[in-house]
């Protein structure tokens, strides 16, 4: 069985990848395809929109954080057992932009090389005609391991402009397919804010808007030709040193589930709502494979933790945008504080870390708010970005997510800073970026570990297993409900 799929990328950010990706996904779903959405890199927001349009979880593929083998394994497993599957991978930034300027690490090109997916380049054609063909020609020849299948011209001013672009491409890059021209349409713009697009949780796409996206793709793009793009058999799918052809996608077994061998699953409460919505789907999957039963709850809307839990996972998000509502929910704050005091394993990252501090101070348009208070510091929102980029963390002590000396990888992106932690709060990470040491981080109090870094559990399989083991060691299920 042939595997169909492609990666949508662009020369640079802001070219229209997300609009094109969502439109194609919506139209293919309408036509009855089983669309398997993916996102290159560490972004959390676009996958939320993929899920809204396709009804399926979108999986992050990141070669730097997780390594090539994990990316291949995830990609193959996600497509296993699907009927009429089409993998649609949305790229990040420009096609060749990643961790550095001299390698593919962390780039969409790296994911294209690992998966073998052909690339469809979305070019912002505003103000260009023949120059657009020159740009496509350069991208098609830049890296022989990245196969450029064709182009979608976006931001096209008129039918006449579209005809000029098609003529230029046919004359100068006859081997490149023009999959279509998207005319300018401000009604399809998704609003943005300080960390990127407004999240799907906070800006749910109405069916009418999804219909508009699908209509745009039907009107402007050659969907049958896009859906017909194939991922070739054989390399680059390599498993255990032997070629694993792409046809294996149809029959490859899914990842094993936890709780085998008669061992009861460990109930772990996972915060998931409009304030806490930044989490990698693979993190959840890996926890389940390690033996976790995930129970979702809302620090915004619920006033108690789920019953019978043995651990808590507080992912990132936008707690600053819901500060007043979070601050007013005293029963939930008390329940989490009591769980930490009782030595329940708790893992928190970025927004979860902020929620565990004493609160946010007033600054600019941000009003002051009091939060859980596990960590005796306060947070302040900043007018400019505080941190952005990939991070590696070496554990300098045994923790609920791994043992001393373990290497973990993730990403950091925030507009806030916290006060100086007192000495009684441990530091368990030694953080580096591209080989440069940034210093200690990873704050631990009792069995609670929190950090600004969004770790990808695929970077080290020990993470999920260690956290489930730590939660299993909890003497009895919680009474904090």
Give the topology.
Blueprint: E1 3-9, H1 17-30, E2 34-40, H2 45-54, E3 59-61, H3 63-66, H4 68-79, E4 85-90, H5 108-115, E5 119-124, H6 130-142, E6 148-156, H7 159-172, E7 177-183, E8 192-193, E9 196-197, H8 207-220, H9 223-227, E10 230-231, E11 238-239, E12 242-243, E13 266-271, H10 281-289, E14 292-297, E15 311-314, H11 323-328, H12 330-341, E16 346-349, H13 351-356, E17 357-360, E18 369-370, E19 375-381, E20 387-395, E21 407-414, E22 416-418, E23 426-433, E24 436-445, E25 448-451, E26 454-455, H14 462-472
Parallel strand pairs: 1-4, 1-5, 2-3, 2-4, 5-6, 6-7, 13-14, 13-15, 15-16, 16-25, 17-19
Antiparallel strand pairs: 1-10, 8-9, 11-12, 17-18, 19-22, 20-21, 20-23, 21-26, 23-24, 24-25
Helix pairs in contact: 1-2, 1-8, 6-7, 10-14
